Amino acid sequence: MKELFLRRDQEYDDSRKDVLISGLATLAYQEFSKAFDPDCEEPASACLERAVSNYLAALKRQPEDESVRHSLSIALTHLSKMYGNEGRSAQEMDFALSLGCHVDRWWTVNNSDDPMIHKAYAAEADGNFKLALRNYFRAFSQDPGNDAVLDLMYGCFKDAIVFGKCSDQMFEYVKGICDKIKAEYAQCAKKDL
């Protein structure tokens, strides 16, 4: 009997969670729609900022929800454009775009069961871009057809440049990795033939 009640409690908690996530996503969509309503008296960017906030809250509670992640990326792309239309700074526009890229990459890592990808992402978060790139390449070497790993590597390289961590040596290191990737692809193509 006790196990039955515990199971019911779990089912109730899960249903409440689904309702909460659905509610957050609905609120986010309503704010997103208001941004493109000509009768709305608020700045479009303010509506999009609230939409982004609610999508982020929903994604935090359900990280595997691809539809929420996709909607969030779209909202961030439009937010960057709205910042431009409203004469906001280039830094604010870049921040919105880069946040969208980070969300996509975080979602990819969060839904990956490859420990090498998780190690790479952790190293990147610590600012150790060289170690991150090395681990991303190891992950790619094990699965050469995985385009998602290439996207993660590309994002990591962009961050290295943004944070001023890309020296000439770093550039040569990344170029070497790219050359190895081309070689991997060539080798896979031969195997397929």
Supply the helix-strand structural class.
Answer: mainly alpha
What's the total number of strands? 0
Question: How many domains in all?
Answer: 2
Total number of helical segments? 8
Oligomeric state: single chain
- CA-based gyration radius: 21 Å
Shape: elongated
Low-pLDDT stretches: 1-17
Q: Termini, distance in Å?
A: 61 Å
Order of helices and strands: HHHHHHHH
Largest sheet: none
Average pLDDT over all residues: 75
Give the percentage of residues in beta strands.
under 5%
User: In percent, how helical is the residue content?
Assistant: over 70%
Give structural notes:
The protein has two domains: 1-111, no CATH class; 112-193, Serine Threonine Protein Phosphatase 5, Tetratricopeptide repeat (Alpha Horseshoe), CATH 1.25.40. It contains eight helices and no strands. Helix 3 runs antiparallel to helix 4 (90-110) and helix 6 (129-142) packs antiparallel against helix 7 (147-162). The protein has helices spanning 2-34, 44-61, 66-85, 90-110, 115-125, 129-142, 147-162, 168-192. It is elongated, with a radius of gyration of 21 Å. By secondary structure, it is an all-alpha fold.
Helices and strands in order, then pairings?
Elements: H1 2-34, H2 44-61, H3 66-85, H4 90-110, H5 115-125, H6 129-142, H7 147-162, H8 168-192
Jot down its keywords.
single chain; about 190 residues; mainly alpha; Serine Threonine Protein Phosphatase 5, Tetratricopeptide repeat; 2 domains; 8 helices; about 0% strand; elongated; disordered N terminus
